Amino acid sequence: MSLTLRYFCYGCLLSSVTWSSSCCSTSTWAPPTAAPLSNQPHRGPERGGGRRAAAAPANQDAELSPEMVFQRDFVCSQDIFNEQDQQAADSGIPQTRLLTCSFQSFSPSLPSASVIICFFNEALSALLRTVHSVLDRTPELLLHEIILVDDHSELDDLKGALEQFVSSELKVKLVRNDKREGLIRGRMIGAKHATGDVLVFLDSHCEVNVLWLQPLLSLVSQDRRTVVCPVIDIISADTLKYSASPIVRGGFNWGLHFRWDPVPPSELGPDSSKPIRSPTMAGGLFAMDRSYFNELGQYDPGMDIWGGENLELSFRIWMCGGQLLIAPCSRVGHIFRKRRPYGSPGGTDTMAHNSLRLAHVWMDEYKLRRKLQCRSFKWFLQNIYPEMSSTALNHKNPPGLMNRNVRRPTVLQRGRLRNLGSGRCLVAQGRPTQKGGAVVLRSCDPQDQEQEWALDEEGQLVLSGLLCLDVSEVRTSDPPRLMKCHGSGGSQQWNLSKSSRLYQVSVGQCLSMSEPMGPKGYVSMAICDQSEAQQWCLES
Ligand code: UD2
Ligand code: MN
Fold it and tell me: Do 443 and 530 have their domain in common?
């Protein structure tokens, strides 16, 4: 049986990749060739120096590191690793850029960057790893300064030890907030201290990859109203391992929660290094002309602590004459934590508060919008995020009604969904017809009809021909559940990759057996890795 991935293969020589999905045969991984990242802050080897790593020939699974294989799962077999990229090979960080990126050249007179990093109670090692990676992988001329904004942290080593480090680095400045401001006002405080041409915001637990800054600065310098995000690679919160992310773009759902969407074919050109227009940004990592940031009104200062500011700024950029792009050749790793290690001072739900402000300001007539002569939200939906308008249509017309008029998606594969880590199969915890029911791992039984899943061309995983495997886009750490199939992708769209991972497009995570596996056989969503706990075989 063969499976075609329509969304994650683009911009390269092929318009789609078709491969055999006999998943069980690909469960052994080639040993990693990239050096594992340590927990400790480090300086990478100097650019241009160091040992040249052996370049991996493309198209040979056996010689690709897991990171590369992972990337290829989502991108394209030809477009994987550039043998000529000496700097990349010497960097000690897995190379996640596409081959075409090395043909890019940049103007010798790019603007300078002020890198702003806000942190609250961040692990010193994670913060230093972020700062060192910027110092090591950014050309001297382009780095104007790094501004660290301490949002009134309580941890001891963020005091003396950090000050000692800052005093030894000329370009690093430290600003301390007198009280907890939250990341939104924190970033504005950082911006106020900045004097470089372009503001580049990073979270305090990142690692920038080689040549990360040039593609961002280059696009901003071509048009000061262009805001640019890198591709956010994944650093595992458990192992700190760095792996490539698929190229997806930002969207949102009607709960005003950010989500990752596949890049629509209309956005894909023949050149995979071309920037991609993105309706929204994830929030943490982006470059923006400093004067444009001020002109556009910075952030909404009424937003507290965390959440919602990313959509607010994205709407404002698009509706008020700017554009938001993702530069596929700029890669920055970010630790996606399972839980945020902090709350808000008053214990309130700042995300809900911020989202309400966002709705009031941008989804209705409002004076701020008139002052900036911005377009309407309707314009934004019609022109920048038409995919959302079609979801809105689905909401108005119950999916059941809609589905009666449309053809059912073709089933690509059927069978039991066996988890390689446990050897067990995914089944409904209760009745497979129960909406909202959980799924668990039980002994496989080829005779049992209730263990049969169908994977269709829309990426839906349908159990016993009835309900779809669905994740919550609001509480992304919740385990998946069985829901009525809605036919609009997102929370019900799964990709079974060649390496047997079940990648959930909307939350950007993989289906995993919960470890340690108790008698109940629970499963969960987790940051994708190469473990057997995340490998699944759809076997008939
Ligand atoms: C994502 C964004 C984050 C922000 C957030 C929504 C990425 C990779 N991350 O969540 O930047 O847009 O969505 O608001 O796109 N911090 C403070 N003070 C606080 C709370 C946080 O300084 O009161 C710092 C924190 O230490 C970190 C940054 O703000 O450096 C972002 O916080 P996060 O990493 O917890 O957010 P994240 O990645 O879950
Ligand atoms: Mn973060």
Answer: yes
Is residue 224 within 8 A of residue 293, CB to CB? The reply is no
Considering only residues 10 and 390, tell me which one the structure prediction assigns the higher pLDDT: 390
Nearest atom within ligand 1 for CA of residue 184: 14
149 and 212 in a single domain? The answer is yes
173 and 271 inside one domain: yes
Contact 506, 491 (CB under 8 A): yes
How far does the centroid of ligand 1 lie from the alpha carbon of residue 258, in Å? 13
* pLDDT 10s digits, 118-149: 999 999 999 999 999 999 999 999 999 999 99
Does the structure show a pLDDT above 60 at 45? no
- Tens of pLDDT along 451-470? 999 999 889 999 988 899 99
Query: What residue ranges line ligand 1, CB within 6 angstroms?
Result: 118-120, 122, 151, 180, 182-183, 186, 203-204, 232, 282-285, 305-307, 309-310, 334, 340, 342
Give 7-39 pLDDT, tens digit per residue: 222 222 222 222 223 333 322 222 222 222 333
Check residue 460 and give its pLDDT: 92
Is the pLDDT assigned to residue 94 strictly greater than 50? yes
Count other C-beta atoms under 10 Å from residue 25's C-beta: 10
Q: Which protein residue's CA is at the shortest distance from atom 11 of ligand 1?
A: 284
User: Quick check: is 67 in a domain?
Assistant: yes
* Residue where a domain terminates, one of 103, 131, 151: 103
Q: Cα–Cα distance between 136 and 525 in angstroms, integer?
A: 34
Nearest CA to ligand 1 atom 17: 183
**pLDDT at res. 206:** 97
Amino acid at 64: L
Which residue has better confidence, 193 or 48? 193
Three-state SS for 538? strand
- Ligand 1 centroid to 355 CA: how many Å? 16
Domain boundaries, position 84? 3-103
Find the angle CA(30)-CA(4)-CA(468) to the nearest 5 degrees. Answer: 100
Amino acid at 486: H
Given 338, 370, 387, which residue is the final one in a domain?
Answer: 338
Q: What's the 167 CA to ligand 1 centre distance in angstroms?
A: 26
- Could you tell me the CATH number of the domain that includes residue 296? 3.90.550.10
* Closest atom of ligand 1 relative to the 182 alpha carbon: 23
Mean pLDDT is lowest, of 165-179, 269-283, 396-410, 512-526, for 396-410
Identify the CATH number of the domain in which residue 526 sits. 2.80.10.50
Going by C-alpha positions, the residue among 96, 187, 102, 107 that lies closest to residue 139 is 107
Q: Which two tokens stand for residue 323?
A: 């554009």
Do 121 and 248 reside in the same domain of the chain?
yes
Examine residue 502 and state whether it is found in any structural domain, yes or no: yes
Q: Are residues 80 and 208 in the same domain?
A: no
In the predicted structure, residue 78 carries a pLDDT above the cut 60? no
- Regarding whether 199 and 140 lie in a shared domain, the answer is yes
State the complex-level ipTM. Answer: 0.98
Split into its structural domains, the chain has a count of 3
Contacts of residue 97, Cβ cutoff 8 Å, sequence gap at least 6 = 82, 85, 88, 209, 210, 211, 328, 329, 331
Report the pLDDT value the prediction gives residue 40, as an integer from 0 to 100: 35
Q: Note whether 151 and 127 are same-domain residues.
A: yes
Give yes or no: residues 205 and 318 share one domain. yes
Q: What's the predicted TM-score (pTM) here?
A: 0.68
